[in-house]
Amino acid sequence: MAGQGLSRQELIRRQRRNGFVGRRGELASFRDALQRPSEELTQFLFHIRGPGGVGKSTLVRQLESAAHEARAVTAYVDESVTGVVEAMTAIGAQFAQQGTPLKRFDRLLATYQQRRHEADAGAAAGQGPSGPSPSTAIVSRVGLVGMGMIPGVGAFTGALDPNQVAAGAEQLRGMLSARLRSYDDVQLVLSPLQVLTPVFLQDLAEAASRRPWVVLFFDTYERTGPLLDDWLRDVLVSERYGELPANVLVVTAGQARLDPKYWSDWHDLVVDLPLEPFTDAEARQLLAAKNVTDERTIEVILHLSGRLPLLVSTLAEARPVDAADVGDPSGTAVERFLKWETEPARRAAALACALPQELDEDVFCAAVDDPEARELYGWLRSMPFVIDRAGRCHYHEVVRTAMLRLQRQQSPSRWQEQHTRLADTFREWRPRLDDGTRPWVNERWRAFRLQETYHRLCADPGKALPHVLYDLLYVQDYDPAALRRWAQMLTRAGRDADVREVREWAEHLLAALDAPQPGVAAMTLLLSRATLDQADRAYAYRLRAWEHIDAEEYDRAVADFMEALALEPESARAFHGRGYAYYLTGRFEEALADFDRGIENGLRDAWVLFRRGHTYRSLGRYAEALADFDDAVQIAPGVAGALAGRGEVYRLSGRHAEALADFDRVVDINPEAAWALARRGQTYRSLGRCAEALADFDRAIELEPDRVWMIVERGLALESTGRYVEATVDFGRAVELRPGRAVDFRRRGQAYRLLGRYEDALADFGRALHIAPDNCWTLAGRGLIYRLMGRCEEASADLDGALDVGPDNCWFHYEKAVVLHALGDPERDGHLARVVELVRAALSEETPAEIADLGNLVLAYSAMLQREEAERALDDFLSLGPPAGRIGELMIALATQVRVIPEAGGNVALLRRRLEDALPESTPPALRELLRRDRG
């Protein structure tokens, strides 16, 4: 038996390629590139351009065939994709079909799709009419981007207390973690492009290592370019997502040149392939290949087609034999093609199937009236004007436009009837959802709704347009990324039905989507130009308000929520939204009133209770905050954010055991919840369990390396254990990440001071005071450093400034007393007496004793040479189980006291020995050595 030869299909493909007419130079330049070593190839982006019908897509298919002959793996992308993620998805699917799957990317993509579904389901659960949508509740509705929660997407720049910003961010992360399993999952859903692209490029590199070439084709680039230009440029010429293998070629095909906004600096990398209509000789060659040889017929075809390759091929497909077949040469090329097609069923099918925007066999059957004509789908797919990809196809725009115009003009009533039937078909195909969610949540439902809407606009634009404008509100709410797709649908419907008003709406909407804040611009357009009823206008105002929250324009958000309330005075969702905007600006009382109104009006869901709980917490009303968090946990037991919110209130209330229990549950639900690990670490630190605190902080920072508050908290824990050198590193990192924060300079300066690095400490305290000149803690800290450096006059001035702001701070009074002693001022005794008075008053209250207060009491009694009182104060200090860092601080403070008050030396030596004996076994050797060096 003979060995296996070429398949019949491959022989047909070769025959077709051998019959290819024209474009020899363009094809040769591409083949030449494939034959050269990739490292010598300086131009790796081929851009085919020319008007519709000139043969761009045909040339793309020829280049694709040439790539396959060179054993390349290829992928083809056209206007069916509406974003970068869809484009990568399409490429991955085609690579898999060619035996070169992008395995890691495919796994991550599947994870993304699953997590997006989980997030959508969580956000949609329990929502009433006009409630936050899945997509926008995850991004737009909660304002994650605007609050700087996504690295690299925009930091919070408002005037809020940073602690308030962090609290708001944690709220949102907490709610997301109810559905998303880890920080990586949150990032994947919120920033899919940044997460997916590097993995996509890694797999692309692996595919390129196994094949001579990888070639990516992007057709109809006049439509996809605005969506893909930025990403494609970064992939090809930058290292933003990783590096591209040298044996990857890219082919784009569109009507215009590449956009200079993106490509002006990279023209030397581009092979520009402008296409013109066929020459007379090329057109005649194609007709001869189709057995059209009658000169009169050829002349008519050349006249009708304008030598556009698509139309020449289409007219030749009917194979007219002589001039008698031509008849009257007036009219269009498409009309002449239909005249030459002798089978009525084929003509009818060709016309009917021009109406849908895209075809598969189901749509074909819905469009064609005659049941007997339904087997013609295969014939239709073979026509030159039908572009077929993976079982779905669409007409070339030049032919489709002509066929639509012909039908619209010949029989307006038939036109309306056919479009109405197709619209009804898509309505029937919309899935019936029985899971309790709103239909707009379902992506498949939305896709059929889009097609139905196109046909209703074509059938009766006057009746359909107001409904379409209302639907745009839902699109913005549930899938804002698809708003451009709907705008493009309006463009096609306005052009195909020749309705000026629809075309103008499409133009205005596309212009809005190109604005810096597309959501705001789109809603403004609808509010200013659309005839919306009262409820729709309120809906639009609410949507625009949430977009303002995204942009951190909280006053505008409040104004829009007020407009919504003017239209719907009892709108629970408007009260909720305005309350959230008030919360983000620190207007807690007003926020609380709005949350109350929202709940009174029936919106008692976990989100509102969660946010009101945080508002109560911000006001220090912990009991009421706990009640709200308890209710939120009861409504949504698995919502980690509600548990974390309650745990934080427990922590702030000093109920550390209960706080730990809640944070433990959060970590059980989501072991990679960095914010929960860090809050648990704070709780451990408050309990003096610094080893456990540091373990949690280390893990949290490993998960989120640039979260400043976590880094600072670890620095404080390191300082508590006496690991001052490491603490300076963490505080230094905080300074790098937010250089305008005085507190970070002060904290690093404090650690430098404990290490005895007084010049460095003085510099940091100076920077802190430059940022916040009146901060009493910074003034007192610099005063201490001046004292340690022997600059007592400057120290006294700084401490006076600190006491002006904080007259009841016992540490300020102690430091002032020591400085006055050094200056020989008898007023020092009054300040020491004030220390004792303040600490004793604090100890008499029904609150836990503070380690810092008792340490100051030890110092005061020691300076007063009251040995027994100092020892009793030390007993109380040690009974609280202070960590090594606190013990070390007191030992250092006592040592510096002796330098000013030598007569206290005997007492100080005894106190320091007791403190040294109390150091935990885990005390770092470096700290022990530091404390030994620092003996008076």
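Above is the first protein from milestone M3; the second protein from the same milestone is given next.
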Amino acid sequence: MNKWQRSRFQPNLPLGENGERVTASKAHRELSKNAAKEGMVLLKNKQNVLPLKKGTKVALFGKGSIDYVKGGGGSGDVTVEYIINLYEGMKALKGHVNVFEELSDFYLENVKSQYEQGAIPGMTVEPVVPEDLLKKASAFTDTAIITICRFSGEGWDRKSSLDTKDKIVLPYEDPLIKRSEEIFERGDFYLTKTETAMVNTVKEHFSKVIVVMNVGGMVDTSWFVDDDSIQSVLMAWQGGMEGGLAAAELLCGMGNPSGKLSDTFAKRLEDYPSTYNFHDSVDYVEYTDDIYVGYRYFETIPGAAEKVNYPFGFGLSYSSFQWNVVSAEEQNGVIQVKVSVTNTGSLEGKEVIQIYVGAPQGLLGKPAKSLVAFQKTRQLKAGETQMLSLEFTVDSMASYDDLGKIQKSAYVLEAGDYLIYVGTSVRNVEKLSFVYNVPQNIVVKQLSEKLVPTSLKERMLADGSFEPLPQREAHNPNECAFEKITDWQAEGYTPEGRIRKSYQLWREPFKKGCHTFYEVAEGKVTVEEFLAQMTDEEVAHLLGGQPNTGVANTFGLGNMPEYGVPNIMTADGPAGLRIAPECGVKTTAWPCATLLACTWNRDIVYAVGEAGAKEVKENNIAIWLTPAVNIHRSPLCGRNFEYYSEDPFLTGKLAAAMVEGIQSQHIGATVKHFALNNKETNRKNSDSRVSERAAREIYLKGFEIIVKEANPWCIMSSYNIINGHRASENRELLEDILRGEWGWNGMVTTDWWTYAEHYKEVKAGNDLKMGRGYPERLLEAKALGLITREDMDVCAKRILELILKVD
């Protein structure tokens, strides 16, 4: 196949063997199911109620047994051929368990009726089970399975009891927010009154109660953690199109849970330090919790440890494991820990070994523990042992000094003992006798001041107190040298079609006398020489999104046929290739990112990326807008299902595997949303106010790991403002840190329809404006001396270099 032949002529050639399509193939659906099983977390299993023995009779309670949520909304939605809920999953096991059908029929009819009235999965009301049906169910069996489901989506956040202010929403978001507030009286973190009543009724009538949580992120666990009448709980997450079958198989012992939590589950929503100011204002979020996010808060701040129900890294198995540290040593700046893991149970299973470092408090203050390494065993048979070797660098234990307490704008290792903890969660660890001592302060890396706050007045310290922060002069993010486009003028508009004048097809397929882009691909002409022949208007045209072709709905880039530049398409999304339903193409819905993070397994995340990229390629799309890797700062962020974890190291390592899997197929991964996109309410005008240290150690760290380990082709800047500067206009973020400090040379695209000014984005190193650009405004800015042709060429060069990578 010739260069860009697929992109230009839409052959839609199948990539499978024997001319078969890989999109939504049986192999991909099976991988989706297996990935879901790998990341589901067994939170509780008293009296070994699970796995269910063959022939067990069960009654399925909760509309969630039918009303299954495969994933979140917005860019994370996927058009699929089918979705398997828990009831269908149980029935697919062909008699392994006997389901009380009359009860399931009741829920089926109820959910069907709610759907017909306009409800969507996860946004339905829990019905009351008739008394006679309840009696029949309890006569049929002593075992009940309760399913609780939740939905969230792009563009809106979850509600809390502290959220009393009006939200700024777009018209398409308003119905979902209103519906959520109608259904969930205290916010969807907690059970509704009808769900609570249903749970209590089930506990009264059944001696064995199992709970399945079909959710996308952190939820209340206080109602079952210490309740002996609920013996087992499976955190099944949003498991993709096969998620109901995956959960059913695990419940029935066809597989062994091996997932570990990628977040801390606190006793109350109000126990997360981010809750109190999350909805303080629609205009900003103050990251006063600083580096103490997730377990870094709960394991460090005095009095916080007792607020945890399930700690970070926690997860049970049907089997049992014994592990032993064989050795720990440091050589050439690398600490290596060897751990022997043995399956001491009767069933095959996997275990995850985790290593945390406890740095000395020193002058900077540190989290009590920070994850620095992890590894999952292979599937171990009963009695089998595996030796794991885990490594991390000494430099990775350094902290960033943004105020100059040791060395300003530098990563430093403060003098003292660095303790090493090995175990299977942040709580279930043993402190090693091996201690790494730093005799005197060491500057690991000297940087320069970036992203300094302009409005964040204080931040949390390790003892729970707060210290004041110096401020830079505030910046106006809406500043523009000429009349600014209003927000509503920027919202949702498609790219303009660029007209090429008539030409004789067989004599002048390209612009007369030009060097074509094919010559660049063949190495005959440099990108710089290619760009030099273009007019200012032509280069400005390259810097914006291009019209859709084929099944694409998120637009393209390139599109200059007179020069031989193809129109390369993009596609959402984090849970699978997103193609609009009207196209008639069904794809594979993969488990949500939070579930993938709970696998703690780079291999299976790589496999999902590889398979998903094949579907992207087969449908003539070249750039996949995934993975999304923002930190789970708060349970309230409506988009947490798209993101991996509260921990940047776990996020970075697993998302890097996703990028590697995607790009193994010569499809461009787009890591998003860069950066600090941890709230959806008023996301295009909300200011994320954060210290430089927290930005570098928590919110940028995952991106840094991905960039340095996987070299993604593309990064998407975020909608939000960061310390007074819009992310897509922030040169310190995009040029100084991303390209300067990290050495990355890929293309940056905006998120779709930002409220930023195009010429300021170009000046900041944001190469491509999506979904459309404003070439006329770029030319006006150039005429005023606000940008130069060289500025535009730099961005255009990176866009063209990305297109050259497409096969």
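Note on the second protein: Residues 602-618 form the longest helix (17 residues).
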